[in-house]
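Hi support team,

I submitted a single chain yesterday and got back a structure, but I'm not sure I'm reading the token output correctly. Could someone confirm the output below corresponds to the sequence I sent? I've pasted both exactly as they appear in my results page.

Thanks,
R.
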Amino acid sequence: MRCELTPCHGFTLIELLLTMALAVLLLTLAADAMPAWLARHRLGLLGQQLVGQLHYARSEALRGNRPVYLCALNAKSNFDLQGCLTTRRRNQYVWDEGALIFADNPLSASNRPAVYDSGDRLRAVQFAPDMVVSAPLAQLRFDADGRPAAALAFRLSMAAGGQCRMVMLSGAGRARVCSAGEVGCDGC
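Hi R., thanks for writing in. Yes, this is the structure output for that exact sequence:
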């Protein structure tokens, strides 16, 4: 085909090969950074999920004018809810399975405060198996005024894929997600 009267359109073989080589190089660089990005993204999603659970527990305490509890979920291998888990690892309680929100029924057969019975559950959330979540308390209580009963700020540490995030709960009951290195976010 001759291109004397009209301009020729298309790419030469060398232009096509250079474009493909550049695309392969960029994909290789992106593939190396992908696991760290995925871990950060998953921890961010887990953090937002935990913040949502803390807000829900607080709002249920305010709405029902009663104490509402958040504890580490204890589920069997078939994900049957067993109640709260109190496993310790070093100075922290393990929250790896998930979180359970319940309002203890004072008229339950056990007549003990802050004990989960099957009718007490408000919400349960399970975490991905590779997430490591821990907290200094096995259980957190929101009083009827929406404030956490613990005098100190509550922290949930989350780790996966070499990344770390924290969910911080203030003494007023406000929750937020932060990363290691942020001001006020230490101990990851």
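A quick pointer for reading it: The first strand starts at residue 68 and ends at 75. Let us know if anything else looks off.

Best,
Support desk
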